[in-house]
């Protein structure tokens, strides 16, 4: 399910402090080096996207054509994020494989099977909504991981990581849902990705119904992830503020 576009940043962080301590004890130098390179590359990739989007809008004064102009970069970096599932599976990162898998696959689904595949919706305003939400979320998230791995986490990045999502999650989710909704008539008319009976495999699949199920899946999943991040926020920001005051 696309559980949440902007939500990809909601990894099950657990207590960040605890985790960082565990990581320091157990992480091998190679793993730390690889994760640092990966997170720097991803931060840079999403920054390139941000600059390209701003430049496009300044030059053209419209969002029409924006998706097309950045689609190759977007598809590359969003698909590259599938590596995060392996990071979890091999224990390089202490995060649930299922949570990460759902989040990353939801983004890949949104990029390839919705926006890329249904050309007629690429100029919808809703596409800009989720692109902006994703871009700001990912720049914040990957720079947070990079600085954490280097043991030099500036407070403003930690603050951004645990505050911006309050606006970015709902904006990203609204953008995704509106984009899928805009795609429905085209999918119904074209019958794309659908398999009709009778056929030799005796199976049928209706992509139109599939997209409706995907939209409905947001109802239970969005609040769950959103409230998880609110709990993290309290733990990380307010827990730390108290400690700092005591010093």
From TrEMBL:
Q: How does it sit in the membrane?
A: Multi-pass membrane protein
**Annotated keywords:** Endoplasmic reticulum, Fatty acid biosynthesis, Fatty acid metabolism, Lipid biosynthesis, Lipid metabolism, Lyase, Membrane, Transmembrane, Transmembrane helix
Give the protein family.
Belongs to the very long-chain fatty acids dehydratase HACD family.
Documented EC number(s):
4.2.1.134
This molecule's function is given as:
Catalyzes the third of the four reactions of the long-chain fatty acids elongation cycle. This endoplasmic reticulum-bound enzymatic process, allows the addition of two carbons to the chain of long- and very long-chain fatty acids/VLCFAs per cycle. This enzyme catalyzes the dehydration of the 3-hydroxyacyl-CoA intermediate into trans-2,3-enoyl-CoA, within each cycle of fatty acid elongation. Thereby, it participates to the production of VLCFAs of different chain lengths that are involved in multiple biological processes as precursors of membrane lipids and lipid mediators.
Supply the enzyme class, top level. Answer: lyase
The encoding gene: Hacd1_1
> Which pathway does this polypeptide act in?
Lipid metabolism; fatty acid biosynthesis
Positions of transmembrane segments? 31-54, 74-92, 164-184, 205-227
| Annotated InterPro entries | Tyr_Pase-like_PTPLA
Disordered: where is this region?
1-23
Give the lineage.
Eukaryota, Metazoa, Chordata, Craniata, Vertebrata
> Where would you say this protein principally sits, based on its record?
endoplasmic reticulum
What is the name listed in the Swiss-Prot or TrEMBL entry for this protein? Very-long-chain (3R)-3-hydroxyacyl-CoA dehydratase
Organism, by scientific name, is Polyodon spathula
Catalytic activity entry = a very-long-chain (3R)-3-hydroxyacyl-CoA = a very-long-chain (2E)-enoyl-CoA + H2O; (3R)-hydroxyhexadecanoyl-CoA = (2E)-hexadecenoyl-CoA + H2O
The record's Pfam families line, in alphabetical order, gives: PTPLA
Where in the cell is the protein located? Answer: Endoplasmic reticulum membrane; Membrane
């Amino acid at each position: 399910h696309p559980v949440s576009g902007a939500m990809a940043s909601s990894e099950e962080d657990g207590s960040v402090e605890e985790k960082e301590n565990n990581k320091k004890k157990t992480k091998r130098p190679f793993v730390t080096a690889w994760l640092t390179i990966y997170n720097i590359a991803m931060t840079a990739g999403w920054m390139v996207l941000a600059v390209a989007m701003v430049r496009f809008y300044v030059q053209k004064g419209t969002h029409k054509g924006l998706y097309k102009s950045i689609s190759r970069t977007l598809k590359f970096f969003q698909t590259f994020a599938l590596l995060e599932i392996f990071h979890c599976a091999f224990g390089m990162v202490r995060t649930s494989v299922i949570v990460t898998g759902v989040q990353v696959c939801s983004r890949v689904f949104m990029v390839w099977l919705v926006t890329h595949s249904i050309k007629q919706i690429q100029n919808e305003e809703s596409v800009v909504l989720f692109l902006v939400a994703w871009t700001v979320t990912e720049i914040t998230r990957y720079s947070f991981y990079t600085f954490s791995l280097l043991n030099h986490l500036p407070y403003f990045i930690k603050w951004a990581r645990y505050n911006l999502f309050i606006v970015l999650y709902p904006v990203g989710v609204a953008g995704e849902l509106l984009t899928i909704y805009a795609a429905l008539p085209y999918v119904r008319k074209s019958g794309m990705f659908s398999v009709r009976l009778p056929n030799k495999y005796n199976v049928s699949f209706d992509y139109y119904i599939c997209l409706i199920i995907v939209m409905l899946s947001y109802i239970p999943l969005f609040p769950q992830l959103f409230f998880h991040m609110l709990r993290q926020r309290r733990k990380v920001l307010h827990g730390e503020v108290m400690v700092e005051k005591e010093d």
